[in-house]
Amino acid sequence: MTFLRRRPFRALAVALATTPLLLAAACSHASDTPAGSTESGSTKALPKTLVFSPLSLAPPALKGLSEGVKGLASGQGWEVIVQDPNFDATKQVQQLNEVISSGRAGAAWILAVAPKSLGDLIRTAQSKGVPLLVNGKPDEYGFSGPQPGITFDYIDYTAGGKALGEQLGKCITEKNGGTGKVLYVASQEGTAGKQEFDTAAAEAFKAAAPNATLAQTVVAVDRAKAQTDIGNALQGNPDLAGVFSANDEGALGAIGAFNAAGKKLNCVTDFGGNDEVLKNVKDGKIYASVALQFNDDTAQSFNTLVKMQADPKANGEVLIVPQKTFTQGS
């Protein structure tokens, strides 16, 4: 799921997103004549064909997402065309332009490699009345709000960071008397939402456990490196009482690092919530995970595209990926 968040994959891959999973500053609105209309006023119905363009099909998370989209849409009578730009922004635009310009596409779901590269494509889709769903906020595409025929779908990083910090503070209060040193495992520079997430997490932790101390911050690029870096941090701070991580790799790396050092980690919280993380929550190895609910987001995204097809000139929506906090007892 980290792929849905990561902005570097836009040069997200988020990213879908990651991002993926998302326009030039000036994009024209759709024309006053609906797509497919003739001068007599008759309207040609859009095909029930959904084009899904993720960042790439190489990451298992994105391959799995493509299968989920295909299963959901096919079950409702839609044909699904899955494209693979392989993190190439130019290739993504070319692939999408081909199916939209040819009239094959009835709607498109785009996890943009480079949002601002989609300006001409968006104008083409608007002129043809083909609704789009893109990942990210409107301002990532140069817009100030909802646009005709375009729905934006983004992760609320401020809310996620706040929940992450609150849960670690709660754990430190319950299990360590509200005191002790903690380690923050951040996402790498350029990750979507990094600044707002990091700030919200730190402020929420301080509010929830004011007598605890943030001793150090490390960056998690992948699980193996995160385990090594956290192990090094643990050598310098052998009395660490907790870890909160901005991604799954950091949380799992923290468990590995503490295990390798023969130390018990009572308080670790995570943002992301992949299957392995949630199993660790259930087993009591991770105190809490703020999990992104991508299944729910897939359903709301597809349903929104179906609704938009009926009136592609109307402004789309601004959707937020649902989040849910899991603890051992939940």
How would you portray this structure in words?
- The protein is an alpha/beta fold and about 325 residues long.
- The protein folds into 2 domains: about 1-155 and about 295-320, Response regulator (Rossmann fold), CATH 3.40.50.2300; about 155-290, 3-Layer(aba) Sandwich (Rossmann fold), CATH 3.40.50.
- Helix content is about 40%, strand content about 20%.
- It is built from 9 helices and 12 strands.
- It has helices at about 60-75, 90-100, 120-130, 155-175, 195-210, 225-235, 250-260, 275-280, 295-310, and strands at about 50-55, 80, 105-110, 130-135, 150-155, 180-185, 210-220, 240-245, 265-270, 290, 320, 325.
- The strands form 2 sheets. It has a 6-stranded parallel beta sheet with strand order 2-1-3-4-5-11, sandwiched between helices.
- Helix 2 packs parallel to helix 3 and helix 4 runs parallel beside helix 5 (about 195-210).
- The model is unreliable at about 5-45 (pLDDT under 50).
